[in-house]
Amino acid sequence: MFRPAPVLAAAAAALFTLPLPAHALESGPKEPLPVFDLQRLKLDASALGSLVVGTGRTLAPGQLRVGLNYHYEHLPLHFQTRWEPGDGTGLVENKMTAHLTLGYGVLSWLDVGAELPFILTQGGKPTLRYAPPRTGGLATPWLSARAALLRQTKGAPLNVAVELTAGLPVGSSTAQAREAYAWQPRLQLGYVGDGFQVGGEAGVFLRKRHDLQSVSYDPADVVGNELRLGATVTSLGGDVTRGEVSVLAGVPLNGGRVGAELLIAIRRHALSSLDLYVMGGPGVGAGFDTPTFRFVAGLSWATSKVD
């Protein structure tokens, strides 16, 4: 005789033993993420090389550059074990941020900069035991100082500079935009040729370590110190329009996954003191804080032409 109760019980037991994807575990109470700044991209306040990679050059004494930027990120926070750009669910799926940047030349070999990001909106789905961060709020402000060690304008074969960037611990913790401390010393190299320039930088990003594997069950889901690398090629041949290609990479030093981005930008000198630009490109890697795509559009005003 057919007995439905044992059959249904066995089917239910088999169902509950099946592995479920991370985004399917959305029922029940959720807890907030450990507090860290989700934003990986730092804009170069002087933009003498690319918009994101320094080339060892500094602004002229008394020169001021002010930039206003709109920044969109797709899937900047999602758990995965391999690179899957087609997977569209995560704790943060779409994020929009406004960035105000300021760069000022103090001496012929020294400039200073600041970046003030503000999250306009972000949204996502609960994942594992974590709830998505709340929408909007001030993100970590950044201050920087760059000193030129060697300059081509003084007869050196290369431009060489050191830069120190520090994050202020005043961002919104509920918007996932605050670090307890953040330091990034960098060495920058560059060469300006006939109608082009190339550059690269290497530095260490130092911040508080957070281990998320107790929830995600993956030992590579770690936020911590990283080796940050960047390289750029910039066109200088056009009087009105110039292009640039930049590559950024983060190599974890105490747990985590490698993440990298390719960013292509076009900058147009609308006026002698006004630049308009767009930049975008894909992210590559399985790090949970590497976006699958980002786009930046902005304008900058300077007291004199930057490039």
Give an account of the 3D structure:
- With 307 residues, this protein is mainly beta.
- It has a single domain (31-302), classed as monomeric porin ompg (Porin), CATH 2.40.160.40.
- The protein is 6% helix and 47% strand.
- The protein has two helices and 15 strands.
- It has helices spanning 4-16, 213-216; strands spanning 64-77, 92-107, 110-123, 137-138, 142-150, 159-167, 182-192, 196-207, 210-211, 222-223, 226-235, 241-252, 259-269, 274-284, 293-302.
- The strands form two sheets. The protein has a twelve-stranded antiparallel beta barrel. Strands 9-10 form a two-stranded antiparallel sheet.
- The chain is globular and about 55 Å long.
- It starts with a helix and ends in a 5-residue tail after the last strand.
- Residues 1-26 have low confidence and may be disordered.
- Residues 1-24 form the signal peptide.
- This is Flagellar motor protein MotB.
- Keywords: Cell projection, Cilium, Flagellum, Signal.
Question: Can you tell me the CATH architecture?
Answer: Beta Barrel
Secondary-structure-based class equals mainly beta
Extract low-pLDDT stretches: 1-26
Shape: globular
If you consult CATH, what is the topology?
A: Porin
- What is the CATH H-level superfamily? monomeric porin ompg
Characterize this entry briefly.
By secondary structure, the chain is mainly beta. The chain has helices spanning 4-16, 213-216; strands at residues 64-77, 92-107, 110-123, 137-138, 142-150, 159-167, 182-192, 196-207, 210-211, 222-223, 226-235, 241-252, 259-269, 274-284, 293-302.
